[in-house]
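Q: Hi! Curious about what Solute carrier family 25 member 16 looks like structurally. Here's the sequence.
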Amino acid sequence: TWPLVAAAAALAAADPPPTMPQAAGVGGSTARRDFYWLRSFLAGGVFSALCAVPRKEGYLGLYKGNGAMMIRIFPYGAIQFMAFEQYKMLITTKLGISGHVHRLMAGSLAGMTAVICTYPLDVVRVRLAFQVKGEHTYTGIIHAFKTIYAKEGGFLGFYRGLMPTILGMAPYAGVSFFTFGTLKSVGLAHAPTLLGRPSSDNPNVLVLKTHINLLCGGVAGAIAQTISYPFDVTRRRMQLGTVLPEFEKCLTMRETMKYVYGHHGIRKGLYRGLSLNYIRCVPSQAVAFTTYELMKQFFHLN
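A: Let's find out. The predicted structure is below.
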């Protein structure tokens, strides 16, 4: 269990609260579309948001929802890594599936399990982060729980957007574990001296060097985020619920994706804010996977 706690702590340290490009309307310049991705990274929401939030709400505005995120990320990380190992063993022993496919399946199931267990805290985190200074609906985590429960249908209010979250988490977690595991095994098989070293707890087992671990984890996170991002945008809008003016047009996953695509398109709608999520996701996954691998050695689990 200790490596699972360490991995959860790593996720907490590397995973800052989300900013709002996903839920915003169409913005940015009207310059040539040829350089959209470069413009979106440099000026189309990332740095402009990082500058605008402190001006309007002070630097603490960048940490709205951080308390709920910290409470959520520890059980989320622990459940995800624990479930991955258990699902991997189950798929291998009971179904007879091994190789790279079992990583994809186990990672997807582990991600969905962790999401279902911690989803109410994610909803509260998003609601708190989206509040504008001077227009607070919720005064804190407990008040947010009470208000959502009282005004949005009881416990069902805490599971708004669960379906797109599960559909997005399955490829996200699956591809993350699959990519990291594949890069690790391929790297150690083809370049063991260059990329690997003997494990500190078992010299007969090769593990990746720390900086290679970070690189593989970052690549895994970037690929997984790109694949699953439209579901993440859909989830955020559904979680915000009555906070958004177009609330009644985004009641289901299908309606929400149709609304976002119809009004904002793919690049400025379904993939809005992707550049900021790369900045958030790549180091988060890199640190999480690396910490998990190091703690497995520390507790002699290899």
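A: A fun detail: Strands lie at 196-198, 206-208.
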